[in-house]
Amino acid sequence: MEQPDIDIGWVGLGNAGYPMAACLAKKGHRLLVRDADPARGIEFVQEYPKCRVATSDPDSFQNCDILVTMLPDGKVVYKVLLGEDGIAPHLKPGSVVIDTSSSSPFDTRALGLELSRLRVDLVDSPITQEQLHAIDRGAATLMVGTDSAEALEKVMPILEDMSNHVFPMGQLGSGHTMKTLNNYVSVGSIIALNDALVTGQKLGLDPQTMIDVMNLGTGVNFSTMYSQKNLKSNDTGYQLELLVKDVKIAKDVIEKSGFHTELPALAEKYLENSLKVVEKGADHTESLKSWEQRAGVEIKRTSDQAIER
């Protein structure tokens, strides 16, 4: 079906932003795109000729009804929208910003208040995915929060063209609350898997066989099924430093809810230790290296021949 002639602005064409924007372009939407790396924008419009690259001017998105941000964290989102050369003051009244980044829900609510003074609505719609690279085929999961029923109605067709799974969660910030709690559960499985792999190998178990068993048992989780399914160098697109950032957000959210648990602080400690032994930009699966150091073992990696069998 032909889409309405809506100009959609898009800021952030990274590992997640590029395929998400592509989902809209494939549905016929015209996007005005920008990335910190200009080459990414050029590459995108070459692949999707109906789209175009925004200039670096802060008013380049002034004709857009909807602006989508997919950026590393809430601080970057704030800088892009309300910093020295911020986009938001130049957006037309009644426009909507959809923040799909992974941010603190408290920062999101504060940002929403500032944008409302400009008569711009904010919708938080972070993502998760059931399978690795599900985002590439429009099968990511969106968790949506907003204080405006009108804004939600306006953006839902866009969100549904971006993904098959869209869950309105409640007020502004509730999408980011759900995202951080989802990530917190995932972090628990990552840490438990690392514990299990080094312990199992120390006691004579084969790590790859352990994962094969878990994937047919109650230990199955996203890491065993996808990011660590084969114990070799992985590139999931989810950096370890971003995982640490998400743990810190989860810790803050849990503490401010009034609930006490010691696990978030432990997770933060273990993963920050991992950051010290990997190169900058390392994939989160490389966190296993710090477990290997503490355990005094080197996990046997899976050969390509074994994977093919």
UniProtKB/TrEMBL annotation:
Organism expressing this protein natively: Pseudopithomyces chartarum
PANTHER family referenced in this protein's UniProt entry, alphabetically: 3-HYDROXYISOBUTYRATE DEHYDROGENASE, MITOCHONDRIAL, 3-HYDROXYISOBUTYRATE DEHYDROGENASE-RELATED
Pathway this chain belongs to: Amino-acid degradation; L-valine degradation
GO molecular function: 3-hydroxyisobutyrate dehydrogenase activity; NAD binding; NADP binding
Catalyzed reactions per annotation: 3-hydroxy-2-methylpropanoate + NAD(+) = 2-methyl-3-oxopropanoate + NADH + H(+)
Signal peptide: none
Protein's UniProt name: 3-hydroxyisobutyrate dehydrogenase
Keyword Oxidoreductase: yes
Single biological process term from Gene Ontology: branched-chain amino acid catabolic process
Active site: 179
Span of domain 3-hydroxyisobutyrate dehydrogenase-like NAD-binding: 173-289
